[in-house]
Amino acid sequence: GKASEDEAGSGVIAQVAGRTVVITNRHVVNRSELDNITIRLDGGREIRPTRLWSDPLTDIAVLAIEVDDLETARLAAGDSLQIGDTVLAIGSPFGLSHSVTLGIVSAKGRRDLDLGEGGVKFQDFIQTDAAINPGNSGGPLVNLRGEVVGLNTAIASNSGGSEGIGFAIPI
Question: For 50, phi and psi rounded to 5 degrees?
Fold first, then answer.
């Protein structure tokens, strides 16, 4: 067998403060050295990040990439998301790339969730019934205007699979 199993997650390519970055969950890259992280784009192209910032208290990680010819996501402005809005969760659950699930926002500002040993101290989650599964972490939660409203982060589940309660960090 292989010495180390590849961990997979998802991310959002965005322009932040004039830099092209990939935004993801800290738990996706947490146990990786920068040199061991590869960003695989839709067409198979692979990019290596040049820098990594992460915050355990919010479970956010930002990877700097020195590539100029990438399409970047549009981030939703302010607090435009409303309860009842339709959203799409995009990512690679179980390694199945560009999977999309549809749901509605049932709550904002969810706090005090027990998310396992790491925990997320500063919680302000969007709750949706869009199916979020392992591998969706760090991928975008998108509104119907194509704007990123959140980062898919966690599921409330007894079985380990999606049971219709997913959580995203507001963008």
Answer: -100, -15
Tokens, residue 61: 């990680």
| pLDDT tens-digit map of 34-69 | 999 999 988 889 999 999 999 988 889 999 999 988
Residues 6 or more apart whose Cβ sits within 8 Å of residue 23? 11, 12, 14, 16, 60, 61, 62, 138, 151
Which one of the listed residues 10, 27, 129, 162 is annotated catalytic? Answer: 27
Q: Could you say which of 10, 99, 137, 162 is catalytic? A: 137
Nearest partner of 143 among 71, 72, 91, 84, judged by Cα: 84
Helix or strand holding residue 125 (H, E): strand 125-128
**Confidence (pTM):** 0.86
Q: Does residue 27 have an active-site annotation?
A: yes
